[in-house]
């Protein structure tokens, strides 16, 4: 690991200033991904700006009924928060399906969103990777890509985003709050991450120096039946092969609201807008769910060795939607 | 690349790459000029000679380095020591307080023969201490119904297995590790 400067920020402005005055700096949160990438030589920051002492570790209810989650709220605390469990169980379930108890105690809400892909070519500096080193090629495209993308990938990158939490946030219509020297802005969680296109080195829409300060969980989806389900190679402590987060509201026997997002299939949480559209105003039957999910997954372009992901994701989504429809009836 | 190749304390690192850091470890304060690259695990083992926490994978995947920071279990291989400035650290050496009587989990691991080579054991025990406290504080796990009314979570075998999944045991002592944890919470 190369030597680096360490700055402990006392305020947001101080953090942004320190970033501006240290070219090649990175913000440090829980460090569970960044420190690992530094050990691997993938990240070589000249300075770490520690933002963990900033007052962004609270969960507060806003006057408009939304829930504001500070960027420094640890994953374990967010999953356990009574208001989160009550309003959006899918978010608690997604957080608890990720990593281990130790990692969830350290990892922050902001850092979870900003974690990098676990593509083995990205993590191995001896291999080509357009995300790590633009122009060097994609080792996974014709290499080991069983865990990689089936939707929205490009010839430059077939990596997937590893977060479970972000998939639930996308389905719940959450927003991400960003702070920069130019001011504060909000981005829908479903549009926070990018598709790789010609620039796989850019995971998100965050501009250099901007800092994630909060995630906002809207009042609109609070209390609607929601759930997260994940398929992985072992029962615990593994990244998703495919996962789904869904929010479903049924009124007068028809679907009044559907929010569906897939994990493990793309460079970002894949919001299934086509499936959602197909469900609106339709009776929540298994065949309606199958038809809607098929409309979404028609766009899938599997690689040589990961076609299994399409029927896997289909099964997960149809199962979760069916369960939510039954929960809605009982409620 | 591997932290084992780095100089102790940061001797050799220029002053701009070191910071005075104070940690309370097992109740005792320590102030060191820490190389920013030093992770807590290396500081404990190399600088303080507390070799209970083990270096397994060094990437947060095996849990052998688990210690308690401000009462919460974390992977000490992924926590930069400088970032833990001011924190209270408890390692397996400090679990029993005065050191005269072993911690109930240490005793249970001995009684249940919950290990073979023993390399993962300090991490397993620190992780179990943290996991029991989390369940008492009402933290759910992947196998808890998060829609249930929040409150302390009773730890059956399935809960124990899930909550300790961040600690690998290559000898495969898992069934007895679960037995030992069950003995303590009963």
SSE inventory with pairings:
The complex is a heterodimer of chains A (331) and B (186).
Chain A: E1 5-8, H1 12-21, E2 25-28, H2 34-40, E3 47-50, E4 59-61, E5 67-70, H3 75-80, H4 82-87, H5 89-96, H6 101-106, H7 109-114, H8 165-171, E6 175-180, E7 183-188, E8 211-217, E9 226-231, E10 242-251, E11 254-263, E12 270-271, H9 273-279, H10 286-297, H11 309-330
Parallel strand pairs in A: 1-3, 2-3
Antiparallel strand pairs in A: 4-5, 5-8, 6-7, 6-8, 9-10, 10-11, 11-12
Helix pairs in contact in A: 5-8, 9-10, 10-11
Chain B: E1 18-25, E2 28-35, H1 40-47, E3 66-69, E4 72-75, E5 88-90, H2 104-112, H3 121-136, H4 157-163, H5 174-185
Parallel strand pairs in B: 1-5
Antiparallel strand pairs in B: 1-2, 3-4, 3-5
Helix pairs in contact in B: 2-5
Task: Please tell me about this protein's structure.
The complex is a heterodimer of chains A (331) and B (186). Helices cover 29% and strands 20% of the residues of chain A. Chain A has 331 residues and is of the alpha+beta class. Among the domains of chain A are: 5-50, Uridine Diphospho-n-acetylenolpyruvylglucosamine Reductase, domain 2 (2-Layer Sandwich); 226-330, 2-Layer Sandwich (Enolase-like, domain 1), CATH 3.30.390. Chain A has a five-stranded antiparallel sheet. A four-stranded antiparallel sheet of chain A has the order 9-10-11-12, with helices on both faces. In chain A, strands 1-3-2 form a three-stranded parallel sheet, with helices on one face. In chain A, helix 5 runs antiparallel to helix 8 (165-171), helix 9 (273-279) packs antiparallel against helix 10 (286-297) and helix 10 (286-297) packs antiparallel against helix 11 (309-330). Chain A is globular and about 60 Å long. The model of chain A has no long low-confidence stretch (mean pLDDT 97). By secondary structure, chain B is of the alpha+beta class. Chain B folds into two domains: 3-94, Ubiquitin-like (UB roll) (Roll), CATH 3.10.20; 104-185, [2Fe-2S]-binding domain (DNA polymerase, domain 1), CATH 1.10.150. Helices cover 28% and strands 15% of the residues of chain B. Chain B contains five helices and five strands. In chain B, helix 2 (104-112) packs across helix 5 (174-185). Chain B is globular and about 50 Å long. The A-B interface holds A 1, 3-6, 8, 28, 31-32, 35-36, 39-41, 48, 50, 52, 76, 79-80, 82, 85, 89, 92-93, 96-97, 99-103, 105-106, 235-237 and B 1-3, 6, 13-14, 16-17, 19, 35-37, 39, 58-60, 63, 66, 72-75, 78-80, 82-83, 85, 127, 130-131, 134, 137-142, 144, 146-147, 150, 161-167. Chain A: It holds the Pfam family CO_deh_flav_C. Chain A: This is Molybdopterin dehydrogenase. Chain A: Keywords: Oxidoreductase. Chain A: GO terms for molecular function: FAD binding; oxidoreductase activity. Chain A: InterPro entries: CO_DH_flav_C (IPR005107), CO_DH_flav_C_dom_sf (IPR036683), Diverse_Substr_Oxidored (IPR051312), FAD-bd_PCMH (IPR016166), FAD-bd_PCMH-like_sf (IPR036318), FAD-bd_PCMH_sub1 (IPR016167), FAD-bd_PCMH_sub2 (IPR016169), Mopterin_DH_FAD-bd (IPR002346). Chain B: Pathway: Alkaloid degradation; nicotine degradation.
């Amino acid at each position: 690991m190369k030597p680096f400067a360490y700055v402990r920020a006392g305020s947001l402005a101080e953090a942004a200033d320190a970033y501006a005055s240290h070219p090649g700096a990175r913000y440090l949160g829980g460090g569970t991904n960044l420190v690992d990438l530094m050990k691997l030589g993938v990240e070589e920051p000249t300075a770490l700006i520690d933002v963990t002492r900033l007052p962004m570790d609270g969960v507060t209810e806003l006057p408009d009924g939304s829930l504001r989650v500070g960027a420094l709220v640890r994953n374990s605390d967010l999953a356990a928060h009574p208001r989160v469990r009550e309003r959006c169980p899918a978010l608690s379930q997604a957080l608890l399906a990720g990593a281990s108890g130790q990692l969830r105690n350290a990892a922050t809400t902001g850092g979870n969103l900003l974690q990098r892909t676990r593509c083995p070519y990205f993590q191995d500096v001896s291999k080509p990777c357009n995300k790590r080193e633009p122009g060097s090629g994609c080792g996974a495209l014709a290499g080991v890509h069983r865990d990689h993308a089936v939707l929205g990938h490009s010839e430059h990158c077939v990596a997937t985003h590893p977060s479970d939490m972000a998939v639930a946030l996308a389905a719940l219509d959450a927003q991400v709050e960003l702070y920069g020297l130019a001011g504060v802005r909000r981005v829908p969680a479903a549009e926070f991450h990018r598709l790789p296109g010609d620039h796989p080195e850019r995971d998100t829409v965050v501009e250099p120096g901007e800092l994630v300060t909060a995630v906002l969980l809207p009042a609109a989806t609070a209390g609607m039946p929601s759930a997260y389900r994940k398929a992985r190679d072992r029962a615990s402590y593994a990244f998703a092969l495919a996962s789904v987060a869904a929010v479903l509201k049924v009124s007068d026997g028809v679907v009044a609201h559907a929010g569906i997002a897939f994990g493990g299939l793309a460079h970002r949480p894949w919001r299934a807008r086509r499936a959602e559209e197909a469900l609106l105003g339709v009776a929540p039957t298994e065949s309606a769910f199958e038809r809607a999910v098929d409309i979404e997954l028609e766009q899938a372009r599997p690689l040589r060795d990961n076609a299994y992901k399409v029927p896997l994701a289909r099964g997960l989504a149809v199962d979760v939607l069916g369960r939510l429809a039954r929960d809605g009836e009982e409620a | 690349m591997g932290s084992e190749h780095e100089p102790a304390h940061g001797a050799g690192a220029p002053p701009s790459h070191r910071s005075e850091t104070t940690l309370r470890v097992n109740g005792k304060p320590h102030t060191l000029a820490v190389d920013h690259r030093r992770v807590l695990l290396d500081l404990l083992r190399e600088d303080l000679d507390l070799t209970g926490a083990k270096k397994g994978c060094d990437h947060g995947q095996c849990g052998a380095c688990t210690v308690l920071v401000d009462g919460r279990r974390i992977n000490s291989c992924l926590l930069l020591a400088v970032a833990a400035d001011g924190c209270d650290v408890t390692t397996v050496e400090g679990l029993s307080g005065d050191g005269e009587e072993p911690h109930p989990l240490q005793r249970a691991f001995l009684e249940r023969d919950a290990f073979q080579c023993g390399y993962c054991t300090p991490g397993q025990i620190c992780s179990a201490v943290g996991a029991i406290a989390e369940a008492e504080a009402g933290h759910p796990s992947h196998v808890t119904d998060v829609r249930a009314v929040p409150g302390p979570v009773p730890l059956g075998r399935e809960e124990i297995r899930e909550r300790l999944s961040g600690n690998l045991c290559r000898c495969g002592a898992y069934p007895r590790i679960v037995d030992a944890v069950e003995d303590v919470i009963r």
